[in-house]
Automatic annotation (TrEMBL):
Recorded GO MF terms: monoatomic anion transmembrane transporter activity; sodium:bicarbonate symporter activity; solute:inorganic anion antiporter activity
Transmembrane spans: 402-424, 436-467, 487-508, 520-543, 624-643, 655-676, 710-729, 750-774, 810-829, 836-855, 887-918
InterPro entries cross-referenced by the UniProt entry: Band3_cytoplasmic_dom, HCO3_transpt-like_TM_dom, HCO3_transpt_euk, Na/HCO3_transpt, PTrfase/Anion_transptr
Keywords: Cell membrane, Ion transport, Membrane, Transmembrane, Transmembrane helix, Transport
Domain Bicarbonate transporter-like transmembrane: 396-938
Domain of life: Eukaryota
Pfam families reported in the protein's UniProt record: Band_3_cyto, HCO3_cotransp
Name of this chain's protein: Anion exchange protein
Length: 1005
């Protein structure tokens, strides 16, 4: 039965070569072919002596041996003449093509090639030995220096010149056989001939890799399991027409010293021609070498069945070639490799029926993942097996993890100290720095150990701090016990979180598009930047610069300690009671205070005994503000510079990668050393040295009953609802940002599991009187960035490719364990200046803005159109529409900032929910095409139902009575359309058509 294929099956503009390649390449399910390393050797003449000299090599880009012959050129994009490509096409049409040759050594391969040429009448039999002699000359690679010939070598070459052609049996190899028996017979004949040839010094190539090959460090640049493609070009006097052969071996074979590195050879291209056209031969060799490293043509070379398939591959390459006018471009100028190499998938998609529907510019932006495990169907993530957890542990033991641990640890303890101090001020020390440290350590380590996404870092956040302050003020003003009231709010909120998990409420993240993600993450980044700068400005207020200082009036600057009023000296009686929250120091009675010489006391002693400081220089602190600023900005700028050091030209790749990975650690150590060298009393990191509650009148466990009326236990559910909304939105938006497809995470997201553990930890922290914790956006992004992996064996000139993130639980667990034992590390940590940590905060805020499209679009306001970067969305969306969308985001961000900075911050979580509503309203302002490029498409229930119906009808392909859309399988007959190609369907599913619209005719291959 002949199956016809509609005009949606194959676009009318697909060339015949592309049609042929579609069937050559077949399905994409096959394993990828090995990477090809291509080496081109040219024949060098030195009198009567000849050798093959390596002249260029390719992995991705071309490297030439410079004219001086002492060094390799920089990797560059190969620039080919169009004429050389046509000449190459002619060579493959007229030359010898041997596919799947069972070759075991270079002499045997060359013998088979020559045999085939003689059989086809392309080579005279009397030239057999001369060709063999030339092709079996020694190969000298760039790693070897030229060797001057000795007199013995010259004598050897002269003696062998007269006896260069060994005796050959005329009956050997009359035809090119493929059977095993014939091959065995031919091998025995070849062995006899080759032994005779080798005895006459005909073969200069060793059968095993040389020491120089094994020691060549270039092998590190070649991927594992790579195969080689050797190109041999040269000119000889005895040929009247070119000798051309393209060989694909059945199995990759080590050919001894032919290749620069010990890589097995799979392809061999030979071009020998008459003298006088060396440049033309060299360009043809460069053309085939460039084709062999082309992703699409290399696949064709591996799967080609005959000569015509290879020619179709060249024709497809010619279809994509861009020609530069000779009068406007100097071919001697080498084109630098691009930072991002265009993917060959777009070219390959032309040959896949499953991709035709996406070739009309359909935007690739899809909505966010689903609620459960990050899969499209919203299911919960699979249970992690023991082997997977052991794998997570194994990935954690890497030198890159050390840098991530130190970086995130310093960020966490700085955050714990900052929020702990603010919580202490807001709650009258019911929660302070010690509670913040213990809560961070306990909640963070438990989350990283059991949660679905251990890359998320838990921390206290600004909205929670504001809620705690309002809750404490409300409790104090209404006579309600704050800790007990807070416990019940935490329990209600934990229960509500568990209800959200049970009811699959995480489905809402499907509606969290780029609009909401970028607004929330930008806000948190700005908060980090603002707080870091604010604290730095505070240092200038606490340690002011004495701008009124005049050298002439230096004698007028003094500071004296004045005794307190005698009437108030009784206040310093040692028997006076001491407040529970003050330090009980040694107080002196009135007699001791009267006997003191106040003019001889130091500043600390004067204040200790109740004296007062009088004078213009009392508040003078030498250069502390300026020194603090140097430490602050120096840490930030040094970290930023060292992070970019990976892309500099200095030092080897591994050294640059090591410096970039440990950039934050090096910056912190450097400026801690600078601070120690100057010896100024800059503000230092202070950590409690004793594990005990900040207030002496509270313990480590909060009892749920006994201090508040019974109705408080029920009424606390209302404020708990606000906390739940805050926790839910904070946690899920951060999880969506962490689980972006750009991060290439391999494991499931686990949105429900994360929220479950946040709820459990909230209940535990409420019972212990510890702060509440939720996902910290900026620190989590910093954690992701510090664990990014790149290819270790990138081709010369190719930028390292991002592979993904080192997904494991080790770094997070160690960070929070170190946070817990920081109390015992206080003697060491006290040498870290606070301005250095503020610089780390600033870097976290700025670094988290990288890669945010909203920030890129904001910068477009200040750029003329001709100077704007070539962003993809600028090609498809009008600039005025982009500016309008960006302005909406700026307004929403400003509203969120104002709410955060006022008493109205209590409704902050509700406003985050409102961002989703604003995004939904934008569907009425912008087209779906525009939103697909600058945001994501919000999923619709109706569209989902239609897709479900189509899936159900997928099996009814043979029902001809229906006028509905019918899906066709891969055809054996292609129908050429008689009308213009209609727009591609928006979905990427099977390619369907309506029977009423079909108007085609068909033909078979």
């Amino acid at each position: 039965m002949k199956i016809t294929f509609s005009h949606w099956g194959l676009p009318a503009w697909v060339s015949p070569a592309a049609e042929r390649l579609r069937y050559i390449l077949g399905d994409d399910d096959e394993p990828p072919n090995p990477t090809l390393f291509t080496e081109m050797d040219t024949l060098q003449h030195d009198g009567e002596e000849m050798e093959w000299k390596e002249s260029a090599r390719w992995i991705k880009f071309e490297e030439k041996v410079e004219e001086g012959g002492e060094r390799w050129s920089k990797p560059h994009v190969s620039t080919l003449s169009l004429h050389s490509l046509f000449e190459l096409r002619t060579c493959l049409q007229t030359g010898t093509v041997l596919l799947d040759l069972d070759g075991y050594s270079l002499p045997q391969i060359i013998d088979d090639v020559i045999e085939k040429q003689i059989e086809d009448g392309l080579l005279k039999p009397e030239l057999r030995e001369k060709i063999s002699y030339v092709l079996l000359r020694k190969h000298r690679h760039q790693t070897k220096k030229p060797i001057h010939r000795s007199l013995a070598d010259i004598g050897k070459s002269v003696s062998s010149n007269t006896n260069r052609s060994p005796v050959r049996s005329p009956a050997a190899g009359a035809t090119f056989h493929r059977s095993t028996e014939d091959l065995r017979m031919r091998q025995s004949t070849s062995y006899g001939r080759l032994r005779h040839a080798q005895s006459r010094s005909m073969n200069d190539i060793s059968d095993t890799p040389s020491t120089d090959q094994l020691k060549n460090k270039f092998i590190k640049k070649i991927p594992k399991d790579a195969e080689a493609s050797n190109v041999l070009v040269g000119e000889v006097e005895f040929l009247e027409k070119p000798f051309v052969a393209f060989v694909r071996l059945l199995q990759a074979t080590m050919l001894g010293g032919v290749t620069e590195v010990p890589v097995p050879t799979r392809f061999l291209f030979i071009l020998l021609g008459p003298a006088g056209k060396a440049k033309s031969y060299n360009e043809i060799g460069r053309a085939i070498a460039t084709l062999m490293v082309d992703d699409l043509f290399s696949d064709v070379a591996y799967k080609a069945r005959d000569r015509e398939d290879l020619i179709a591959g060249i024709d497809e390459f010619l279809d994509e070639v861009i020609v530069l006018p000779p009068g406007e471009w100097d071919p001697n100028i080498r084109i630098e490799p691009p930072k991002k190499v265009p993917s060959a998938e777009k070219r390959k998609s032309v040959f896949s029926l499953n991709e035709v529907g996406q070739m009309n510019g359909t935007a690739g932006g899809a909505g966010a993942g689903s609620g459960g495990g990050g899969s499209d169907d919203g299911e919960m993530p699979e249970v992690h097996e023991i082997g997977e957890e052991l794998c997570c542990t194994y990935f954690g033991f890497h030198i890159q993890s050390i840098s991530a641990i130190l970086f995130i640890y310093l960020g966490c303890i700085t955050n714990a100290i900052t929020f702990g101090g603010l919580l202490g001020d807001a709650t009258d020390n019911y929660q302070g720095v010690m509670e913040s440290f213990l809560g961070t350590a306990m909640a963070g380590s438990m989350f990283c150990l059991f949660a679905g996404q251990p890359l998320i870092i838990l921390s206290s956040t600004g909205p929670i701090l504001i809620f705690e302050k309002l809750l404490f003020d409300f409790s104090k003003g209404n006579g309600i016990d704050y800790m007990e009231f807070r416990l019940w709010i935490g329990l209600h909120s934990a229960l509500q979180c568990l209800i959200l998990v049970a009811t699959d409420a995480s489905f809402i993240i499907k509606y969290i598009t780029r609009f909401t993600e970028e607004g929330f993450s930008t806000l948190i980044s700005f908060i980090f930047i603002y707080d870091a700068i604010k604290k730095m400005i505070g240092a200038f207020k606490y340690y002011p610069i004495n701008s009124d200082f005049k050298p002439d009036y230096v004698t007028m600057y003094k500071c004296e300690c004045v005794a307190p009023d005698p009437a108030n000296m009784t206040l310093f009686d040692a028997s006076a009671p001491v407040a529970p929250n003050t330090t009980n120091i040694s107080l002196y009675n009135t007699i001791n205070l009267t006997a003191l010489d106040w003019t001889q006391l130091s500043k600390k002693e004067c204040l200790k005994y109740g004296g007062s400081l009088v004078g213009k220089s009392c508040k003078f602190v030498p250069d502390l503000a300026l020194m603090s600023f140097i430490l602050f900005f120096g840490t930030y700028s040094m970290t930023l510079t060292l992070k970019k050091f990976k892309f500099s030209r200095y030092f080897p790749t591994k050294v640059r990668a090591f410096i970039a990975d440990f950039s934050n650690v090096f910056s912190i150590l450097l400026f801690c050393g600078v601070d120690a060298c100057f010896g100024l009393d800059t503000p230092k990191l202070h950590i409690p040295s004793i594990i005990k509650p900040t207030r002496v009148d509270r313990g480590w466990f909060v009892f749920p009953f006994g201090k508040n009326p019974w109705w408080v236990y029920l009424a606390s559910a209302l404020p708990a609802l606000l906390v739940t909304i805050l926790i839910f939105m904070d946690q899920q938006i951060t999880a969506v940002i962490v689980n972006r497809k750009e991060h290439k995470l391999r494991k499931a997201a686990g949105y429900h599991l994360d929220l479950f553990w946040v709820g459990i930890l909230m209940a535990v922290c409420s019972f212990m009187g510890l702060p509440w914790y939720v996902a910290a956006t900026v620190i989590s992004i910093a954690h992701i960035d510090s664990l990014k992996m790149e290819t270790e064996t990138s081709a010369p000139g190719e930028q390292p490719q991002f592979l993904g993130v080192r997904e494991q639980r080790v770094t997070g667990i160690i960070v929070f364990v170190l946070t817990g034992i920081s109390v015992f590390l206080a003697p060491i940590l006290k040498y870290i200046p606070m301005p250095v940590l503020y610089g780390v905060f600033l870097y976290m805020g700025v670094a988290s803005l990288n890669g945010i499209q909203f920030w890129d679009r904001c910068k477009l306001f200040l750029m003329p159109a001709k100077h704007q970067p070539d962003y993809v969305f600028l090609r498809h969306v009008p600039l005025r529409r982009i500016h309008l969308f960006t302005l909406v985001q700026i307004v929403c961000l400003a509203v969120l900032w104002i709410l955060k900075s006022t008493v109205a911050a209590i409704i902050f979580p509700v406003m985050i929910l409102a961002l989703i509503l604003v995004r939904r309203l934008l569907d009425f302002v912008f087209s779906q095409h525009d939103l697909a490029w600058i945001d994501n498409i919000i999923p619709e229930k109706e569209k989902k139902k239609e897709d479900d119906k189509k899936k159900k009808k997928k099996g009814n392909k043979g029902d001809s009575s229906s006028d509905e859309e019918v899906c066709f399988p891969v055809p054996s007959v292609i129908k050429i359309p008689m009308e213009p190609l209609p727009p591609a369907p928006q979905n990427g599913g099977p390619h369907c058509l309506s029977r009423k619209r079909s108007s085609t005719w068909s033909f078979a291959f």
